[in-house]
Amino acid sequence: MKPPAVCLLSGGLDSAVCLAWARREGFACYALSFDYGQRHRIELEAAARVAAALGAERHMVARIGLDAFGGSALTAAMPVPKGRSGEEMSTGIPVTYVPARNTIFLSNALAWAEVLESADLVIGVNALDYSGYPDCRPEYIAAFEHMANLATRAGVEGRTRVRIHAPLLHLTKAEIVRLGAALGVPFGLTHSCYDPAPDGRPCGVCDACLLRRKGFEEAGIVDR
Fold first, then answer.
1. CATH top-level class of 4-219
2. CA 131 to CA 222: how far, in whole Å?
């Protein structure tokens, strides 16, 4: 019997690769997405497509209203940065950072994992080709894992030890694309854009679009 793992799935490139990785590693994958008031809510449709294509045991969409707090270009009436250079994207924390988002996402994943009697969470954070988010750093992941084992009944009773898997943490975007290709990820089903057109077409110039394009170009793979 395959051990269950809760896999955070946004519908984007990185989380799709993580879901495929978890499947390869022998986990029964429970995909968890969030409707958190994001302006690019169309990503949830992509998440559903990816979860089905990659054989998730179940795909759950949790509704949490982070737009009630605002503070981010993804959840409030603030412009999404466009056309930034690589140097600009690697400097400072951009306005697309959603306050405490990964902490909230991982906390929900932890709750579901405890119900499933799972010891494994999978998240697609990346500390190299990313936009400067503080909750994508290795020290953050290590700290949350430590906290998770203090905060759950299963951890306190010694029945399990929670592990947070971040297989993309030290990969470049090109390496992520190559890994996804090797794992058979259906790239055409994913969605990365922060500010898509009403029909879902990517803008092509936000940070997420530019990093995705860079990854595919450097990997020598056509993005479909």
1. alpha beta
2. 23
